[in-house]
Amino acid sequence: MKEYTNYFEVNKATWNKKVGIHAESEMYDLAAFKNGKSSLMPYELRALGNVEGKSLLHLQCHFGQDTLSWSRMGAKCVGLDLSDEGIKLAKQLNFELQLDAEFVCCNVLEASEHISETFDIVFTSYGTIGWLPDLKPWAQMISERLKVGGTFYIVEFHPIAWMFDYTEGKAELNYHYSQDEVIYEEYEGTYANHDSKMVSKEYGWNHGLSEVVNSLIEAGLQIDYLNEYDESPYDVFPNLKNTESGMYKLDNQLYPLIFEIKATKK
């Protein structure tokens, strides 16, 4: 992965700047979180159910809200992220809330170099795999970190949604459904604060569902299910409308916004 080092460094610098902005944002609502509100969404809560007493590794955890929400539910959690500012804040929150989660700062593709234990659950969600150039080493790492019989779960924005460029505040079809070539975007603001003057500089890659599924199968995981949904729990794309369920969808919903995969290590 040495050929991607510059891309990862640019992304890390951007995410380090995002941490402070996101911690103050309405979307992350840190005050409510500190007062006990869970940051977890219906898809992952339904999929993983009762996690009490289980060990859980959370990949690409940002500043740890979901990790700490699982910890509040009784899981023994480890969160990891590329951003050292994110991990710093996650550790502060863990201490402040008197929880027992652990946090590791590293590239997710190098997780096995920093974490040797295996887990009952490996979890990742919402805007994670698009930062990775190749999913085969990602899936292999997941397999290495799972106990036999353990569960991997991902809930993620649908690859069709990433075919569009949103940097001008509208959806413009620009990218292939499964694109090997790197995508570079530079824009002002973040998904959690569009009014921020921060300039985001980001390198990403598009991965189709077949690539996600096949990488996991090749790494020795058995796919329990793959589901696709029209409703997103986050208002992060242009022209989304709030639904009766409290989620968001397009007025003219011609493609799914979310997919989820649950898999078991054989």
UniProtKB/TrEMBL annotation:
Cited Gene3D superfamilies: Vaccinia Virus protein VP39
UniProt KW keywords: Methyltransferase, Transferase
Domain of life: Bacteria
Keyword field contains Transcription: no
Methyltransferase is among the record's keywords: yes
BP terms from Gene Ontology: methylation
Domain named Methyltransferase type: residues: 58-154
Protein name: Methyltransferase family protein
Organism (species): Winogradskyella epiphytica
